[in-house]
Specification:
single chain, alpha/beta, FAD/NAD(P)-binding domain, 2 domains, five-stranded parallel sheet, about 30% helix, disordered N terminus
Length: about 450
């Protein structure tokens, strides 16, 4: 994006990443502008070539773990035409959904909803752009804007200048230390990319899945169904899958009001609340899926054709991948007994870790204040605290569990959170209306050369 003779156009907000969080932010900006008042100008960049959210786990029968009412907009504005119900009306399925009497739609359906919403605000996002740096624009010793530098697949650079930046890098796959992914060793995020095309001549004999959470249980169920002659080994350190706590009182930890209480609490209280309610989201499985897997295992015991093997209270000791299989060693923790197995493929369903927004910021990341434990200091409006005078803001969506609570990386608060960010951008813009401008002609010669050479 450029203005004039190649200098970057200045917008109010540049969004990095375009998953559900920044998609919801784009909608919040659009609805703010639609209501009148001074418009907020915004543009977004996304490294994927099109919208996509955990496509590798869009299993046909997998359901969402949050209510459809916790969509991109409803908790902020129930009348929004970007709601899941508006999507259903547009797809001519509203009556059928009501008759279904469910709160948790299929994951593939909710993904289609997200794509539907993303298409409606598609004019503000550029896909196929990998952000390679964020550089502060300084005037009179104050940061007045940030230049977001990105590259396309051909290596051509572009610069987008924003008075504010919103980073929503999402979650990155997590694998155990020392583990390496390969043709036969996967993270569950790639399940639907790998499994359907897996060689079946000869038929696979055995798969192993490591992990104790929802994704692990879903992988076990999927592989058990898709490969009807293969043994499926589920390896986890617990004695059994732990059910998720989705009871009404526990779910209050995801309420928008809980963010205020959590943010203002002492660090000891925050850690206590987080630990108490880990079982609402981390390493837990829906009770219905637990019961379904147990039913399958018991049925196989009755029939004498056992394929589903729960290797509980166990840990993976070693992994050796070859061209034809994977040799694993599994320790049964109560006795220390180690069993070696040859598997056709190993799946790490070992969760995700928050993307490192500060590292992505590059040069601008060096301005971020940190706590003693290294975590960034975050204001209540999801704006990073900077160590230098600044009228420009860096907002983060995700990676704020330490400050804002367990819902920071989840859909539960995305509608309210993005509304708060838009309100903050608007309020700070008005309060700094007399501050130095981030005019395009303030760009330095080096950056101007980058912009001038970009497509």
């Amino acid at each position: 994006m450029s203005a004039g003779s190649g200098s970057p156009e200045v917008v109010d907000l540049v969004g990095i990443g375009f998953g559900p969080s920044n998609l919801a932010l784009a909608i919040a900006v659009e609805e703010h502008n639609r209501r009148g008042g001074e418009p907020i100008t915004a543009t977004f960049v996304e490294r994927q070539d099109r919208f996509g959210w955990h496509r590798g786990m869009l299993l046909d029968d997998a359901t969402m773990q949050v209510s459809f009412l916790k969509d991109l907009v409803t908790l902020r504005d129930p009348t929004s035409d970007y709601s899941f119900l508006s999507y259903l009306q547009a797809r001519d399925r509203l009556v059928e959904f009501v008759n279904h009497k469910i709160l948790f739609p299929l994951r593939v359906e909710f993904h289609d909803y997200l794509e539907w919403a993303a298409e409606r605000v598609g004019d503000v996002v550029t896909y196929g752009q990998q952000v390679v740096g964020v550089e502060p624009v300084i005037v009179d010793d104050s940061v007045v804007a940030f230049d977001v530098v990105s590259e396309d697949a051909a290596g051509r650079r572009s610069v987008r200048r924003g008075r504010n930046v919103a980073v929503a890098v999402g979650l990155a796959p997590s694998i155990p230390p020392g583990a390496e992914l390969g043709p036969r060793v996967w993270h569950n995020l790639d399940l639907l990319r790998r499994a359907p095309s897996f060689p079946r001549d000869p038929e696979p004999r055995r798969f192993a899945v490591v992990g104790a959470g929802q994704s692990a249980a879903e992988c076990v169920a999927y592989l058990h169904q898709q490969f009807p002659t293969a043994e499926i080994c589920s390896i986890f350190a617990r004695y059994g899958y732990a059910p998720s706590d989705d009871t009404p009182y526990a779910n209050r930890i995801f309420d928008p009001a809980a963010v205020d209480l959590y943010f203002d609490a002492d660090d000891d209280v925050k850690r206590m609340l987080f630990d108490y309610h880990r079982n609402t989201n981390y390493s837990v499985v829906d009770a219905d899926l637990i019961n379904d897997l147990y039913r399958r295992e018991y049925q196989e015991r009755v029939l004498g054709e056992r394929r589903l093997r729960m290797m509980n209270a166990s840990r993976l000791c070693s992994v050796t991948e070859s061209a034809h299989d994977v040799r694993i060693a599994v320790e049964f923790l109560p006795t220390g007994e180690i069993e070696s197995l040859d598997v056709d493929a190993l799946v790490y369903a070992t969760g995700y870790r928050p993307g490192d927004a500060v590292t992505l910021l590059g040069e601008a990341g060096g301005l971020v204040c940190r706590r003693e434990d290294g975590a960034p200091v975050v204001h209540r409006d999801y704006r990073l605290d900077l160590a230098v005078p600044s009228i420009a803001g860096i907002y983060v969506q995700g990676g704020t569990e330490h400050s804002h609570g367990i819902s920071s990386s989840l859909l539960s608060n995305v509608a309210v959170r993005t509304g708060e960010i838009v309100a903050s951008v608007d309020e700070r813009r008005r309060s700094h209306s007399g501050a130095p401008a981030a005019d395009a002609d303030l760009v330095d010669d080096e950056l101007a050369a980058i912009v001038g050479s970009s497509a």
